[in-house]
Amino acid sequence: IKSANEGDMNLASIKFRIYLIVGLLGAVILFMVLLLSSKAKDLGNAIFEQDTQFISSFLVESFTLGMQTYDLLEDASAIEATIKSVEELQKGKEATIQTLNVYNSKAEFIAGLHTKEGNKGFKSVEKLTKDSKETTLAVIAPLVDSGTTYGYVEIEFSKKFFQEKSNDNRNTSIMIGSILLMFGVFFSVFVAAKITRSIFNMNTIMKN
């Protein structure tokens, strides 16, 4: 009887240890899921910053050349062509660039894409500045060459597309983590049942 009781105690102890391992495994997987979700968001923000920096630099160079032509010939066709190219690239897609305005050295409006009514409230700057909000990132940069300021460009980027991609990555991480957790739990329960069944059979034999 004593041996049978000891067998029952060992059975309960083994069950407890297995369930403890399952619990620790679940905690580790949950921690990894939360960590990956946070990293996915940070990665999305970093990619957004790099992309907007690259696009801004490219547009600043292009509009600087366009404003030099405008100052010499009062011809804004080069500026309008660049704006038209941006508009064509965004056709049928989620507009990443919501606003694109070009101003002369006196901060007077020259041409733009999705312009605000009256283009009021624009203030000139000495260097590239950014204003990040919940859904948009506004960039204002001077158009400078050889120390001469020819004008300014105002760009407003939408964060919606990048936020959606970041959310997709986070949801994928959560889904993978949940699948791993469920698999780990089912596998551990299966192993625990198999081991305890063998021990239970041995205890039954010992009792008989």
Tell me what you see in this structure.
- With 208 residues, the protein is an alpha+beta fold.
- 64% of the residues lie in helices and 18% in strands.
- It has a five-stranded antiparallel sheet.
- A hairpin with a 3-residue loop joins strand 3 and strand 4.
- Helix 1 runs antiparallel to helix 2.
- The N and C termini lie close together (10 Å).
Short description:
The chain is 64% helix and 18% strand. By secondary structure, it is an alpha+beta fold. A five-stranded antiparallel beta sheet has the order 2-1-5-4-3.
Topology:
Elements: H1 2-73, H2 77-89, E1 97-104, E2 109-113, E3 129-132, E4 136-145, E5 148-158, H3 160-207
Antiparallel strand pairs: 1-2, 1-5, 3-4, 4-5
Helix pairs in contact: 1-2, 1-3
Count of runs of 4 or more consecutive helical residues:
3
SS-based structural class? alpha+beta
Kindly, what is the distance between the CA atoms of the first and last residues, rounded to a whole number of angstroms? 10 Å
Radius of gyration: 32 Å
Order of the strands making up the biggest sheet: 2-1-5-4-3
Q: Beta-strand percentage?
A: 15-25%
Q: Topology as H/E string?
A: HHEEEEEH
Helix content: 55-70%
Biggest β-sheet, characterized? 5 strands, antiparallel
- Ranges with pLDDT <50 over ≥5 residues? none
Quaternary state of this entry equals single chain
Average pLDDT, to the nearest integer?
A: 78
How many E-type strands? 5
From the spread of the alpha carbons, the general shape counts as rod-shaped
